[in-house]
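Reopening: structure tokens for the WT7 complex, inputs below.
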Amino acid sequence: MSNYHIKHLEEYYQVYRKSVREPETFWEEIAIEHFMWRKKWDKVLSWNFSKPEIKWFEGAKLNITDNCIDRHLPTRGDKTAILFEPNDPNEPTEHITYKQLHERVNKFANVLKEQGIKKGDRVCIYVPMIPELAISLLACARIGAIHSVVFAGFSSTALATRINDSDCKMVITCDGSYRGNKTIDLKGIVDNALEDCSGVETVLVAKRIHSDIQMKEGRDKWLQPLLDEASTCCEAETMDSEDPLFILYTSGSTGKPKGMVHTTAGYMVYTAYSFKNAFQYRENDVYWCTADIGWITGHSYIVYGPLANGATTVMFEGVPSYPDFSRFWQIVEKHKVNQFYTAPTAIRALAKQSLDFIDNIDLSSLTVLGSVGEPINEEAWHWYNDNIGKRKSPIIDSWWQTETGGIMICPIPYVTPTKPTYATLPFPGIQPALMDENGEEIKGNQVDGRLCIKFPWPSMARTIWGNHQRYKDTYFSAYKDMYFTGDGALRDEVGYYRITGRVDDVIIVSGHNLGTAPIEDAINEHPAVAESAIVGYPHDVKGNALYGYITLKDTGESRNQDNVRKEINQIITEHIGPIAKLDKIQFTEGLPKTRSGKIMRRILRKIAHKDTSNLGDTSTLLNPEVVQSIIDDAYNDK
Ligand code: WT7
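Re-run output (same inputs, fresh job):
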């Protein structure tokens, strides 16, 4: 039996049991059979969650680009590896075959070497969603440089913090980027950032929008002429399995961002394995993940996971609303996309639009619909299922984190029966545990608690760059010998998991433990509601009361807000119980969001606490302007 590709439910249970009983044999078989190694490992796994120290495939030698590119050349050389769909629909699609990808990565890798980049050096990549972005990651990996991608929508302050935290020697960027009908001056942002980054020696600049930019003598170099001169041969560096592959920053609940460090072999094995199963990818399928490569979703499921399987992966430069809200669906039709992976925030934005944007588009190629990034509420789930999947494509609600490197809890399409708002069952090799307040594991079903993982999996982050103590404190100190996820979850009667939201978002009202996600789900069922966020605020009798920030749909009709308030509380009462009713409801124009679309509850919580003295850095928000308008309205006592 091949453990690599699971095709029915019984097989899932068998494979899962094996992965728990004999994890080392399980992963070793997958690693031997499906990857290219320069030297095999001496030991599959050694681990200690109290230090913490985790090593997979110790002693093995490899290069991840051998696995993502070179080994496909004999059989898939002319197959499209990356299908680039530009922002402007009138600009032609670019098909980059595996052979071309090999050449372009090698050239880029040679440029990095000529510019003095060596194995172990950190290279910051601040590039929009154009082919050079994917290629630059792979070029770093080819020579053993550690890439640190910063989403090309972050401000110069955020960029500078990240460059300095990991002492990057080089920045790769672009003159500017397209975003719908706007252009963004990326190089200007880099210039500002670099005023505070003395360690950066070289800036490589790709051309995209052909804007007139400043080039700093001695530091800034145009990329294309260097590529033109470079050789297409670049022997891949031999890496140890535990050599860092990349750093990716994720925001903590407090303090500066955490540079999560992912290493080579385990990350490769797990992202490839999970990609194959989560999307049931078959040869010749076209797979599209709408995330940006600036996030872990893009690293694992646009670049490494798909390419390690020899897949065709779509890279889309633009936004779902340009030229209009049919763009995603136009792309699906144009390229006959089979697997489509997006975020609930995008689904909700699209669900607010008229169905005319979908009606005349052929979506029949779709076989799998994915969701990631936050809990998908029931209404959005059904909209996605009815209108995009036409009730024939399973929705895979995939729970994971920057720290986990790959998908952890997720239905396997056509294998695991789905259930709205449930991420369902753990992937093989993943051993979840629910913990109570006293640090005890809660066994059995129909229970809820704090979600931990009790055994290592290959793609877990190994440390926080430059701060191993913080890694230990954040993830391994709350519960003994457990990785703590920071999320709450419940396990239903058949063992399915539902992620109930960050534990720091759990609010205790009159001694009842209330997750914000189920309350928001209930509110979002109201036909007038577009989006909502719940936070707690101090209350004399209950300890905490609930404050709801709610955005209504813009339908042009006028509404009696007091009636809507009553109706919302009625729905909550129906779905959860009167205990979860909101004490305050504030209607807002929008909700403050991170660039990845997550609602910044921290800010909303402060406003609800009437404490706006220290809202922290709001400059990296997607929509910083809504913060002031929420504050103004909140204190008008509406
Ligand atoms: C946090 C991790 C995983 C890539 C993108 C986000 C939340 C993520 C789900 C889901 C419920 C989810 C969790 C998690 N989350 N996916 N399917 N259902 N919650 O990565 O920025 O590191 O965020 O996102 O709270 O801890 P991230």
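The longest strand covers residues 529-539. The pocket of WT7 is lined by residues 250, 295-297, 372-375, 397-402, 423, 485-487, 499, 502, 596 (CB under 6 Å). Marking as resolved unless the reporter disagrees.
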